[in-house]
From TrEMBL:
Mg(2+) 2 binds at residue 68. The RuvA-RuvB-RuvC complex processes Holliday junction (HJ) DNA during genetic recombination and DNA repair. Endonuclease that resolves HJ intermediates. Cleaves cruciform DNA by making single-stranded nicks across the HJ at symmetrical positions within the homologous arms, yielding a 5'-phosphate and a 3'-hydroxyl group; requires a central core of homology in the junction. The consensus cleavage sequence is 5'-(A/T)TT(C/G)-3'. Cleavage occurs on the 3'-side of the TT dinucleotide at the point of strand exchange. This is Crossover junction endodeoxyribonuclease RuvC. Binds 2 Mg(2+) ion per subunit. Homodimer which binds Holliday junction (HJ) DNA. The HJ becomes 2-fold symmetrical on binding to RuvC with unstacked arms; it has a different conformation from HJ DNA in complex with RuvA. In the full resolvosome a probable DNA-RuvA(4)-RuvB(12)-RuvC(2) complex forms which resolves the HJ.
Length: 179
């Protein structure tokens, strides 16, 4: 499975591509940051993020895109920018028919470090170890994007089985009512 992880942000949008399957060693295929100037108009910043996402999708051809779920922060301006960058990433994937998964920050931290309250240094250290890198990716947004991809690779099989079980249960329940 090849996953593009996206840590959304208006100034720095972390991106990272990881390939592998749960229970096997994972491989980093690329990591970076799509940057936009803080003093540019919002519309131009969103176009720059779109162009950056399209380049990553063209180059790496992921099967899935994993995006950090936007959660409420104290700074409304920050959360709005994060949500806008997140929407651009989801739009780019949807346009190509690539499934998008949203993962909360605590879900990603728990998957990668074992603790949903891990700090950025712990996440970076585990990403470095899991991908057998010589140093943690910089900035932290890049490491977070890789963590999102890792989280999705590890959690997708269980999530898929759960969705299939729910679908079967719903189908069986519907058949039982019509009989």
């Amino acid at each position: 499975m090849r996953v593009l992880g996206v840590d959304p942000g208006l100034t720095r949008c972390g991106v990272g591509v990881v390939e592998g399957v749960a229970g096997r060693p994972l491989t980093m295929l690329g990591v970076g940051v799509v940057r936009t100037p803080a003093d540019a108009d919002l519309s131009h910043r969103l176009v720059a993020i779109e162009q950056g996402m399209e380049e990553w999708l063209d180059e790496h051809r992921p099967e899935f895109v994993a995006v950090e779920r936007v959660f409420s922060q104290h700074n409304v301006r920050t959360v709005m920018g994060t949500a806008q960058a997140s929407a651009v990433a989801m739009l780019c994937a949807a346009r190509r028919g690539i499934p998008v998964a949203l993962h909360t920050p605590s879900e990603v931290k728990a998957a990668v470090t074992g603790s949903g309250r891990a700090d950025k240094a712990q996440v970076g250290a585990m990403v470095t170890r899991l991908l057998r890198l010589s140093a943690p990716p910089k900035p932290a947004d890049a490491a977070d994007a890789l963590a999102l991809a890792i989280c999705h690779i590890w959690r997708a099989p269980a999530q898929n089985r759960l969705q299939q079980a729910v679908a079967r249960h719903t189908l069986n329940a519907t058949k039982g009512r019509t009989a």
